[in-house]
Design goal:
Blueprint: H1 26-29, E1 44-49, H2 63-79, E2 91-101, E3 110-120, E4 124-133, E5 140-151, H3 163-170
């Protein structure tokens, strides 16, 4: 009778983590902005009241609501931009969002969303943000940045930033 050889795969087996919630992805381990950023000199500030419906099963604001707060703050800023910032051939789209969650927000709460210009490109605008407690701006809940790109809705291609946006960011 012939001996059977071990036919194991040459691939090494992955080790299974004992608790998947304690495993940090490699991309998150090397994130460049892991420290809270200092407040900007002249932010655009939007006060927001936390709603009961913003909470999750853990009784704090769900991570997706943070994006809603940022969207509301951006729209409040855009409505105050003097001059046309969009038309049929140039509209902003959200191209990227980076959020670093620093502390949970419990209900009831009042927060301030602080927006500030980080970078003006040819067709894009990087907006830095901080979400802080309305009574204590040193209590940081979230910081990061979003990138808006102005595009032509018909073609989907990037177009130059409107002059009103450039002017608003320069002041």
């Amino acid at each position: 009778m012939a001996d059977k050889k071990n036919t194991k795969s040459p691939r090494p087996r992955r080790k299974r983590a004992a608790d998947p919630l304690q495993v940090t992805p490699a991309a998150a381990q090397s994130a460049p902005n892991t420290q809270p950023q200092p407040p900007p000199r002249t932010p655009f500030i939007v006060p927001i009241a936390v709603r009961w419906r913003d909470l999750d099963a853990f009784n704090h604001v769900n991570n997706s609501s943070f994006l809603t707060y940022l969207e509301e703050a951006r729209l409040q800023w855009l409505k105050d931009v003097p001059g046309p910032w969009f038309d049929a051939h140039a509209m902003p789209v959200l191209a990227a969002a980076e959020l670093s969650y620093r502390a949970p927000i419990a209900w009831p709460a009042h927060i301030n969303v602080e927006l500030f210009n980080e970078r003006i490109g040819t067709s894009s605008l990087t907006i830095g943000h901080r979400i802080v407690d309305a009574k204590d701006s040193q209590k940081l809940y979230c910081d990061g940045r979003t990138v808006l790109v102005w595009t032509d809705p018909a073609s989907g291609k990037a177009v130059p930033l409107p002059a009103a946006i450039r002017d608003a960011c320069a002041s």
